[in-house]
Design a protein that fits this description.
β15 and β16 form a beta hairpin. The radius of gyration is 24 Å and the shape is elongated. The chain folds into three domains: 150 residues, Rossmann fold, CATH 3.40.50.720; 165 residues, Dihydrodipicolinate Reductase, domain 2 (2-Layer Sandwich), CATH 3.30.360.10; 82 residues, 2-Layer Sandwich (Alpha-Beta Plaits), CATH 3.30.70.260. Strands 7, 8, 9, 10, 11, 12, 14, 15, 16 and 18 form a ten-stranded mixed sheet that branches. The chain has a six-stranded parallel sheet with strand order 3-2-1-4-5-6, with helices on both faces. It is built from 15 helices and 18 strands. With 430 residues, the chain is of the alpha/beta class. Pathway: Amino-acid biosynthesis; L-threonine biosynthesis; L-threonine from L-aspartate: step 3/5; Amino-acid biosynthesis; L-methionine biosynthesis via de novo pathway; L-homoserine from L-aspartate: step 3/3. Belongs to the homoserine dehydrogenase family. It catalyses: L-homoserine + NADP(+) = L-aspartate 4-semialdehyde + NADPH + H(+); L-homoserine + NAD(+) = L-aspartate 4-semialdehyde + NADH + H(+).
Length: 430
Protein backbone atom coordinates (compact mmCIF):
# COMPACT_ATOMS: atom_id res chain seq x y z
CA UNK A 1 0.00 0.00 0.00
CA UNK A 2 1.53 3.30 -1.07
CA UNK A 3 -1.32 5.71 -0.34
CA UNK A 4 -0.11 8.22 2.26
CA UNK A 5 -1.45 8.40 5.79
CA UNK A 6 -2.89 11.87 6.22
CA UNK A 7 -2.21 13.77 9.45
CA UNK A 8 -4.15 16.72 10.88
CA UNK A 9 -2.07 18.93 13.17
CA UNK A 10 -3.88 20.95 15.85
CA UNK A 11 -1.66 23.83 16.95
CA UNK A 12 1.56 25.15 15.50
CA UNK A 13 3.41 26.73 18.40
CA UNK A 14 6.82 25.67 19.67
CA UNK A 15 5.98 21.96 19.70
CA UNK A 16 3.65 21.94 16.70
CA UNK A 17 6.17 23.82 14.58
CA UNK A 18 8.86 21.28 15.50
CA UNK A 19 6.53 18.39 14.67
CA UNK A 20 5.73 19.92 11.27
CA UNK A 21 9.42 20.44 10.48
CA UNK A 22 10.47 16.93 11.57
CA UNK A 23 7.67 15.36 9.53
CA UNK A 24 9.19 17.03 6.48
CA UNK A 25 12.86 16.39 7.31
CA UNK A 26 12.36 12.75 8.26
CA UNK A 27 9.76 11.87 5.64
CA UNK A 28 11.85 9.11 4.07
CA UNK A 29 12.71 7.42 7.36
CA UNK A 30 9.13 7.67 8.59
CA UNK A 31 7.87 6.03 5.40
CA UNK A 32 10.33 3.16 5.88
CA UNK A 33 9.40 2.69 9.53
CA UNK A 34 5.64 2.83 8.99
CA UNK A 35 5.31 1.18 5.61
CA UNK A 36 3.41 4.08 4.07
CA UNK A 37 4.21 7.75 3.54
CA UNK A 38 2.96 10.34 6.03
CA UNK A 39 1.46 13.53 4.66
CA UNK A 40 0.18 16.61 6.47
CA UNK A 41 -3.44 17.19 5.52
CA UNK A 42 -3.84 20.51 7.35
CA UNK A 43 -2.76 22.64 10.29
CA UNK A 44 -5.43 24.22 12.49
CA UNK A 45 -4.46 27.52 14.13
CA UNK A 46 -6.32 30.53 15.48
CA UNK A 47 -4.35 33.18 13.57
CA UNK A 48 -3.04 31.95 10.19
CA UNK A 49 -1.23 35.24 9.55
CA UNK A 50 1.16 34.43 12.41
CA UNK A 51 2.48 31.33 10.65
CA UNK A 52 4.22 32.44 7.46
CA UNK A 53 6.50 29.38 7.66
CA UNK A 54 3.53 27.05 6.99
CA UNK A 55 2.26 26.67 3.40
CA UNK A 56 -0.91 28.75 3.18
CA UNK A 57 -2.83 25.84 1.65
CA UNK A 58 -2.39 23.82 4.84
CA UNK A 59 -3.59 26.45 7.30
CA UNK A 60 -7.17 26.54 8.54
CA UNK A 61 -9.14 27.98 11.43
CA UNK A 62 -11.79 25.24 11.14
CA UNK A 63 -10.31 22.67 13.51
CA UNK A 64 -13.50 20.59 13.77
CA UNK A 65 -13.79 20.43 9.99
CA UNK A 66 -10.15 19.36 9.73
CA UNK A 67 -10.26 16.50 12.26
CA UNK A 68 -13.48 15.06 10.81
CA UNK A 69 -12.42 15.18 7.16
CA UNK A 70 -12.72 11.87 5.32
CA UNK A 71 -9.14 12.10 4.01
CA UNK A 72 -7.60 12.46 7.49
CA UNK A 73 -6.31 9.29 9.17
CA UNK A 74 -4.48 10.58 12.27
CA UNK A 75 -4.73 13.67 14.46
CA UNK A 76 -1.91 15.29 16.46
CA UNK A 77 -3.10 17.65 19.21
CA UNK A 78 -0.55 20.09 20.63
CA UNK A 79 -2.73 23.08 21.50
CA UNK A 80 -2.93 22.25 25.22
CA UNK A 81 -5.57 23.20 27.77
CA UNK A 82 -8.95 21.61 28.36
CA UNK A 83 -11.14 23.20 25.69
CA UNK A 84 -11.34 23.15 22.74
CA UNK A 85 -8.81 20.29 22.91
CA UNK A 86 -11.24 17.85 24.57
CA UNK A 87 -14.03 18.50 22.07
CA UNK A 88 -11.64 18.24 19.14
CA UNK A 89 -10.15 14.96 20.33
CA UNK A 90 -13.61 13.48 20.91
CA UNK A 91 -14.72 14.64 17.47
CA UNK A 92 -11.64 13.06 15.90
CA UNK A 93 -12.09 9.78 17.78
CA UNK A 94 -15.79 9.56 16.92
CA UNK A 95 -14.85 10.12 13.29
CA UNK A 96 -12.53 7.10 13.45
CA UNK A 97 -9.18 8.93 13.73
CA UNK A 98 -6.40 7.82 16.04
CA UNK A 99 -5.02 10.65 18.17
CA UNK A 100 -1.60 11.63 19.49
CA UNK A 101 -1.63 14.28 22.20
CA UNK A 102 0.86 16.14 24.40
CA UNK A 103 -1.90 17.52 26.62
CA UNK A 104 -1.09 16.70 30.26
CA UNK A 105 -3.84 18.90 31.73
CA UNK A 106 -6.57 17.25 29.68
CA UNK A 107 -5.34 13.68 30.20
CA UNK A 108 -5.04 14.29 33.95
CA UNK A 109 -8.60 15.63 34.14
CA UNK A 110 -10.49 13.52 31.63
CA UNK A 111 -8.27 10.61 30.63
CA UNK A 112 -10.81 7.93 31.57
CA UNK A 113 -13.52 9.36 29.32
CA UNK A 114 -11.11 9.92 26.44
CA UNK A 115 -9.78 6.36 26.65
CA UNK A 116 -13.32 5.00 26.79
CA UNK A 117 -14.24 6.97 23.66
CA UNK A 118 -11.12 5.72 21.85
CA UNK A 119 -11.82 2.11 22.83
CA UNK A 120 -15.44 2.38 21.69
CA UNK A 121 -14.34 3.76 18.32
CA UNK A 122 -11.54 1.20 17.94
CA UNK A 123 -8.80 3.82 17.59
CA UNK A 124 -5.62 4.73 19.46
CA UNK A 125 -4.98 7.51 21.96
CA UNK A 126 -1.27 7.97 22.70
CA UNK A 127 0.32 10.74 24.80
CA UNK A 128 3.96 9.96 25.57
CA UNK A 129 4.87 13.66 25.26
CA UNK A 130 2.46 14.69 28.02
CA UNK A 131 4.68 13.86 31.00
CA UNK A 132 8.42 14.04 30.39
CA UNK A 133 9.16 15.45 26.95
CA UNK A 134 11.58 13.26 25.04
CA UNK A 135 11.96 10.67 27.82
CA UNK A 136 10.41 7.30 26.89
CA UNK A 137 8.40 6.71 30.04
CA UNK A 138 4.69 6.08 29.58
CA UNK A 139 5.08 3.22 27.12
CA UNK A 140 7.54 1.36 29.41
CA UNK A 141 5.06 1.79 32.27
CA UNK A 142 2.13 0.66 30.15
CA UNK A 143 3.83 -2.11 28.15
CA UNK A 144 7.35 -3.10 29.28
CA UNK A 145 6.32 -3.35 32.96
CA UNK A 146 2.86 -4.76 32.28
CA UNK A 147 3.87 -8.10 33.82
CA UNK A 148 5.24 -6.52 36.99
CA UNK A 149 3.74 -4.70 39.96
CA UNK A 150 4.95 -1.14 40.36
CA UNK A 151 5.22 -0.05 43.97
CA UNK A 152 6.49 3.50 43.70
CA UNK A 153 7.24 6.21 41.13
CA UNK A 154 9.21 9.29 42.19
CA UNK A 155 10.14 11.92 39.67
CA UNK A 156 11.40 15.37 38.81
CA UNK A 157 8.89 16.20 36.08
CA UNK A 158 9.09 19.98 35.83
CA UNK A 159 12.21 21.53 34.36
CA UNK A 160 11.48 25.10 35.46
CA UNK A 161 11.30 24.28 39.16
CA UNK A 162 14.29 21.96 38.92
CA UNK A 163 16.34 24.75 37.37
CA UNK A 164 15.30 27.19 40.11
CA UNK A 165 16.09 24.79 42.95
CA UNK A 166 19.39 23.79 41.32
CA UNK A 167 20.46 27.44 41.12
CA UNK A 168 19.44 28.05 44.72
CA UNK A 169 21.66 25.13 45.78
CA UNK A 170 24.58 26.20 43.58
CA UNK A 171 24.61 29.92 44.34
CA UNK A 172 22.84 30.36 47.69
CA UNK A 173 20.27 32.60 46.00
CA UNK A 174 16.71 32.94 47.25
CA UNK A 175 13.65 31.81 45.34
CA UNK A 176 12.88 35.22 43.81
CA UNK A 177 16.41 35.68 42.47
CA UNK A 178 16.53 32.18 40.98
CA UNK A 179 13.08 32.63 39.41
CA UNK A 180 14.18 35.91 37.82
CA UNK A 181 17.19 34.16 36.31
CA UNK A 182 15.03 31.31 35.01
CA UNK A 183 12.65 33.81 33.42
CA UNK A 184 15.49 35.73 31.77
CA UNK A 185 16.89 32.52 30.28
CA UNK A 186 13.49 31.37 29.01
CA UNK A 187 13.07 28.44 31.40
CA UNK A 188 10.14 30.11 33.15
CA UNK A 189 7.06 31.65 31.57
CA UNK A 190 6.09 35.28 32.16
CA UNK A 191 3.38 33.82 34.42
CA UNK A 192 5.19 30.89 36.13
CA UNK A 193 2.22 29.87 38.31
CA UNK A 194 1.61 26.50 36.67
CA UNK A 195 5.22 25.51 37.25
CA UNK A 196 6.21 27.03 40.60
CA UNK A 197 2.88 26.23 42.29
CA UNK A 198 3.05 22.59 41.19
CA UNK A 199 0.03 22.43 38.85
CA UNK A 200 2.11 21.14 35.93
CA UNK A 201 3.77 18.44 38.05
CA UNK A 202 0.45 17.44 39.63
CA UNK A 203 -1.13 16.77 36.23
CA UNK A 204 1.86 14.62 35.26
CA UNK A 205 1.73 12.78 38.58
CA UNK A 206 -1.93 11.89 37.96
CA UNK A 207 -1.04 10.38 34.57
CA UNK A 208 1.90 8.44 36.03
CA UNK A 209 -0.19 7.08 38.90
CA UNK A 210 -3.03 6.05 36.60
CA UNK A 211 -0.72 4.03 34.37
CA UNK A 212 1.43 2.63 37.17
CA UNK A 213 -1.37 1.41 39.41
CA UNK A 214 -4.12 0.67 36.85
CA UNK A 215 -6.40 3.07 38.67
CA UNK A 216 -8.18 6.22 37.55
CA UNK A 217 -6.35 9.15 39.18
CA UNK A 218 -7.10 12.78 38.33
CA UNK A 219 -5.22 15.97 39.16
CA UNK A 220 -7.82 16.63 41.87
CA UNK A 221 -6.60 13.49 43.67
CA UNK A 222 -3.04 14.82 43.87
CA UNK A 223 -1.85 16.71 46.94
CA UNK A 224 0.00 19.73 45.56
CA UNK A 225 2.52 22.16 47.02
CA UNK A 226 4.83 24.41 45.03
CA UNK A 227 8.30 25.78 45.67
CA UNK A 228 7.63 29.48 46.24
CA UNK A 229 7.96 29.00 50.02
CA UNK A 230 11.32 27.23 49.75
CA UNK A 231 13.96 29.55 51.18
CA UNK A 232 17.72 29.79 50.96
CA UNK A 233 17.71 28.62 54.59
CA UNK A 234 15.81 25.45 53.63
CA UNK A 235 18.35 24.67 50.93
CA UNK A 236 21.25 25.37 53.29
CA UNK A 237 19.75 23.13 56.00
CA UNK A 238 19.42 20.35 53.44
CA UNK A 239 23.10 20.66 52.50
CA UNK A 240 24.07 20.39 56.19
CA UNK A 241 22.63 16.87 56.37
CA UNK A 242 23.93 15.76 52.96
CA UNK A 243 20.71 16.46 51.07
CA UNK A 244 19.39 18.67 48.30
CA UNK A 245 15.88 20.04 47.70
CA UNK A 246 13.81 18.92 44.70
CA UNK A 247 10.18 19.31 43.69
CA UNK A 248 9.05 15.68 43.55
CA UNK A 249 6.04 13.95 42.07
CA UNK A 250 5.54 10.90 44.29
CA UNK A 251 3.12 8.12 43.37
CA UNK A 252 3.02 5.10 45.65
CA UNK A 253 0.96 2.05 46.37
CA UNK A 254 0.46 1.97 50.14
CA UNK A 255 -0.50 -1.25 51.90
CA UNK A 256 -3.11 -1.04 54.65
CA UNK A 257 -5.29 -3.25 56.82
CA UNK A 258 -8.22 -2.74 54.45
CA UNK A 259 -6.17 -3.28 51.30
CA UNK A 260 -3.88 -1.18 49.13
CA UNK A 261 -4.45 2.48 48.38
CA UNK A 262 -2.78 4.95 46.03
CA UNK A 263 -1.10 8.05 47.44
CA UNK A 264 -0.12 10.76 44.96
CA UNK A 265 1.57 14.00 45.99
CA UNK A 266 3.69 16.82 44.61
CA UNK A 267 5.81 18.87 46.99
CA UNK A 268 9.38 20.01 47.64
CA UNK A 269 11.43 17.52 49.62
CA UNK A 270 14.96 16.93 50.83
CA UNK A 271 16.64 13.90 49.25
CA UNK A 272 20.14 12.56 49.97
CA UNK A 273 22.84 13.64 47.54
CA UNK A 274 23.54 9.92 47.05
CA UNK A 275 20.07 9.41 45.51
CA UNK A 276 20.12 9.24 41.68
CA UNK A 277 17.54 12.06 41.45
CA UNK A 278 19.79 14.42 43.43
CA UNK A 279 22.22 14.68 40.51
CA UNK A 280 19.51 15.79 38.08
CA UNK A 281 20.30 19.46 37.55
CA UNK A 282 19.17 22.36 35.43
CA UNK A 283 15.98 21.93 33.43
CA UNK A 284 16.30 18.17 33.04
CA UNK A 285 13.70 15.62 34.16
CA UNK A 286 14.11 12.17 35.66
CA UNK A 287 11.74 9.53 36.98
CA UNK A 288 12.69 6.76 39.41
CA UNK A 289 10.53 3.62 39.29
CA UNK A 290 10.46 0.82 41.86
CA UNK A 291 8.83 -2.45 40.79
CA UNK A 292 8.49 -5.81 42.51
CA UNK A 293 10.46 -7.90 40.01
CA UNK A 294 12.35 -5.33 37.95
CA UNK A 295 13.67 -3.51 41.00
CA UNK A 296 14.79 0.09 40.59
CA UNK A 297 14.75 1.81 37.20
CA UNK A 298 15.50 5.40 36.24
CA UNK A 299 14.49 7.39 33.17
CA UNK A 300 16.39 10.62 32.48
CA UNK A 301 16.50 13.28 29.78
CA UNK A 302 15.11 16.53 28.44
CA UNK A 303 11.61 16.96 29.75
CA UNK A 304 10.49 19.97 27.72
CA UNK A 305 11.24 22.09 24.69
CA UNK A 306 10.06 22.03 21.10
CA UNK A 307 12.30 19.36 19.59
CA UNK A 308 12.46 16.98 22.60
CA UNK A 309 8.67 17.02 22.93
CA UNK A 310 8.23 16.69 19.17
CA UNK A 311 10.46 13.59 19.32
CA UNK A 312 7.98 11.93 21.69
CA UNK A 313 5.04 13.03 19.53
CA UNK A 314 6.61 11.48 16.43
CA UNK A 315 7.35 8.28 18.33
CA UNK A 316 3.65 7.99 19.14
CA UNK A 317 2.76 8.94 15.58
CA UNK A 318 4.84 6.07 14.22
CA UNK A 319 3.17 3.66 16.67
CA UNK A 320 -0.41 4.65 15.84
CA UNK A 321 0.40 4.81 12.13
CA UNK A 322 1.74 1.24 12.21
CA UNK A 323 -1.43 0.14 13.95
CA UNK A 324 -3.45 1.93 11.28
CA UNK A 325 -1.53 0.14 8.53
CA UNK A 326 -2.10 -3.17 10.32
CA UNK A 327 -5.80 -2.41 10.58
CA UNK A 328 -5.99 -2.58 14.36
CA UNK A 329 -5.68 -0.38 17.42
CA UNK A 330 -3.16 -1.04 20.17
CA UNK A 331 -4.26 -2.07 23.64
CA UNK A 332 -5.01 0.97 25.79
CA UNK A 333 -4.36 1.23 29.53
CA UNK A 334 -6.83 -0.45 31.85
CA UNK A 335 -8.08 0.81 35.21
CA UNK A 336 -9.02 -2.63 36.48
CA UNK A 337 -7.49 -2.20 39.98
CA UNK A 338 -9.75 0.71 40.93
CA UNK A 339 -7.75 1.40 44.10
CA UNK A 340 -8.95 4.22 46.37
CA UNK A 341 -6.73 7.28 46.68
CA UNK A 342 -5.28 8.06 50.09
CA UNK A 343 -5.42 11.67 51.34
CA UNK A 344 -2.17 13.35 52.31
CA UNK A 345 -3.25 13.49 55.96
CA UNK A 346 -3.14 9.69 56.13
CA UNK A 347 -0.05 9.25 53.97
CA UNK A 348 3.18 8.27 55.80
CA UNK A 349 5.85 10.95 55.40
CA UNK A 350 8.92 12.25 57.22
CA UNK A 351 9.80 15.83 58.20
CA UNK A 352 12.98 17.83 58.59
CA UNK A 353 12.31 20.63 61.10
CA UNK A 354 14.57 23.51 62.12
CA UNK A 355 13.67 25.45 65.28
CA UNK A 356 15.08 28.60 66.89
CA UNK A 357 14.76 28.01 70.63
CA UNK A 358 15.83 29.62 73.87
CA UNK A 359 19.10 28.12 75.10
CA UNK A 360 17.76 27.08 78.50
CA UNK A 361 17.71 23.77 80.38
CA UNK A 362 14.86 21.45 79.44
CA UNK A 363 14.03 22.94 76.05
CA UNK A 364 14.97 19.78 74.18
CA UNK A 365 12.77 17.69 76.48
CA UNK A 366 9.88 20.10 75.92
CA UNK A 367 10.24 19.86 72.17
CA UNK A 368 10.55 16.08 72.28
CA UNK A 369 7.37 15.90 74.35
CA UNK A 370 5.46 17.82 71.66
CA UNK A 371 6.50 15.23 69.08
CA UNK A 372 5.63 12.33 71.39
CA UNK A 373 2.19 13.72 72.20
CA UNK A 374 1.32 13.56 68.50
CA UNK A 375 2.71 10.05 68.01
CA UNK A 376 5.76 11.19 66.04
CA UNK A 377 9.12 9.52 66.69
CA UNK A 378 12.34 11.51 66.32
CA UNK A 379 15.09 9.89 64.21
CA UNK A 380 17.88 12.43 64.70
CA UNK A 381 18.39 15.74 66.51
CA UNK A 382 21.20 18.27 66.38
CA UNK A 383 21.58 21.33 68.60
CA UNK A 384 23.77 24.34 67.84
CA UNK A 385 24.04 27.11 70.43
CA UNK A 386 24.57 30.81 69.70
CA UNK A 387 24.39 33.20 72.63
CA UNK A 388 21.12 32.96 74.55
CA UNK A 389 19.48 31.04 71.70
CA UNK A 390 20.01 27.72 69.96
CA UNK A 391 18.99 25.94 66.78
CA UNK A 392 17.41 22.50 66.93
CA UNK A 393 17.44 20.47 63.71
CA UNK A 394 15.17 17.43 63.90
CA UNK A 395 14.48 14.65 61.40
CA UNK A 396 11.49 12.46 62.20
CA UNK A 397 10.67 8.85 61.52
CA UNK A 398 7.75 8.10 59.21
CA UNK A 399 4.33 9.12 60.51
CA UNK A 400 0.95 10.13 59.07
CA UNK A 401 1.32 13.58 57.56
CA UNK A 402 -1.53 14.93 59.70
CA UNK A 403 0.37 13.98 62.87
CA UNK A 404 3.47 15.75 61.62
CA UNK A 405 1.52 18.88 60.65
CA UNK A 406 -0.18 18.94 64.06
CA UNK A 407 3.21 18.66 65.74
CA UNK A 408 4.51 21.71 63.87
CA UNK A 409 1.40 23.67 64.84
CA UNK A 410 1.91 22.72 68.50
CA UNK A 411 5.59 23.70 68.42
CA UNK A 412 4.69 27.21 67.28
CA UNK A 413 2.80 27.62 70.57
CA UNK A 414 5.67 26.45 72.83
CA UNK A 415 7.08 29.47 74.73
CA UNK A 416 10.66 28.26 74.42
CA UNK A 417 10.36 27.99 70.61
CA UNK A 418 11.15 31.39 69.12
CA UNK A 419 10.44 30.32 65.58
CA UNK A 420 9.97 27.37 63.24
CA UNK A 421 12.49 28.42 60.60
CA UNK A 422 12.36 25.48 58.21
CA UNK A 423 9.95 22.61 57.56
CA UNK A 424 10.39 20.25 54.61
CA UNK A 425 9.46 16.66 53.96
CA UNK A 426 12.30 14.16 53.60
CA UNK A 427 12.49 11.31 51.10
CA UNK A 428 15.03 8.53 50.72
CA UNK A 429 16.88 8.83 54.04
CA UNK A 430 17.59 5.55 55.82
Amino acid sequence: MTAPLRVALLGCGTVGGAVLRLLDEQAGDLTARIGRPVQVAGVAVRRPDRHPEVPAGLLTTDAVGLVTRDDVDLVVEVIGGIEPARSLILAAVEAGKSVVSANKALLAEDGVALHAAAAKAGVDLYYEASVAGAIPLLRPLRESLAGDQIRRVVGIVNGTTNYILSRMAETGAGFSEALAEATELGYAEADPTADVDGFDAAAKAAILASLSFHTAVTAADVHREGISAVSATDVARAAEIGCTVKLLAICERVAGEDGDTVAVRVHPAMIPTSHPLAAVGGAFNAVFVEAEAAGQLMFYGQGAGGEPTASAVLGDLVAVARNRVAGAAGAGPTAYADLPTRPIAETPTRYHVSLDVADVPGVLATVATAFAEHGVSIATVRQDGHGDAATLVIVTHSAPDAALSSTIAALREVPAVRGVTSVLRVEGLS
